[in-house]
């Protein structure tokens, strides 16, 4: 087991330090774990609310409105479930020492991009190329 890395509360990864050093890795690990925890708590709250919220509403319009709200909530939770899987994958890459590197080019992903989107697997340039190719093929 690795020794715990000291990380000040105000720490932010900087470009002038070695890429994905222990402090940066720990910073992103904590960020990913906190994000995952928040998503799972939201999911539990939603499940509890849906279980408690089942009621018989006589007005058809009110019932339709509630069903629409539930469907939207479930769709949101499904997206979050997929996001949790991406967070888990990012945590695995972190453990394997592959986190922060573009899966297409192998180059480091910018710290700003990782801070904004910690589950990023491609550099901004590679992501843009991927999206352009996807758009071209989708139009066919």
Write the topology of this structure.
Blueprint: H1 22-52, H2 60-96, H3 111-116, H4 124-139
Could you characterize what this model shows?
By secondary structure, this protein is mainly alpha-helical. It contains 4 helices and no strands. The chain starts with 21 loop residues before the first helix and ends with a helix. This is RNA polymerase-binding transcription factor DksA. Interacts directly with the RNA polymerase.
Essential attributes:
0% strand; 140 residues; zinc-finger; single chain; mainly alpha
Query: What gap, in angstroms, lies between the N and C termini?
Result: 51 Å
Please provide the ordered H/E string of secondary-structure elements. Answer: HHHH
Query: Which stretches of 5+ consecutive residues score pLDDT under 50?
Result: none
Q: What number is the mean pLDDT? A: 88
Number of helices: 4
Shape: flat
Brief write-up:
By secondary structure, the chain is mostly helical.
């Amino acid at each position: 087991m690795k020794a715990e890395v000291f990380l000040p509360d105000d720490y932010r990864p900087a470009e002038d330090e070695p890429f994905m050093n222990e402090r940066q890795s720990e910073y992103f690990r904590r960020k990913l774990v906190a994000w995952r925890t928040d998503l799972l708590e939201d999911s539990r709250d939603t499940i509890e609310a849906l279980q408690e919220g089942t009621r018989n509403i006589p007005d058809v319009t009110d019932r339709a409105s509630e069903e629409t709200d539930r469907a939207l909530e479930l769709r949101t939770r499904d997206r979050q479930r997929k996001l949790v899987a991406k967070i888990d994958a990012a945590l695995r890459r972190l453990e394997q020492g592959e986190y922060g590197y573009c899966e297409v080019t192998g180059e480091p992903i910018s710290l700003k991009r990782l801070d904004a989107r910690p589950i990023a697997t491609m550099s901004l340039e590679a992501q843009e190329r991927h999206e352009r190719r996807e758009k071209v093929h989708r139009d066919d």
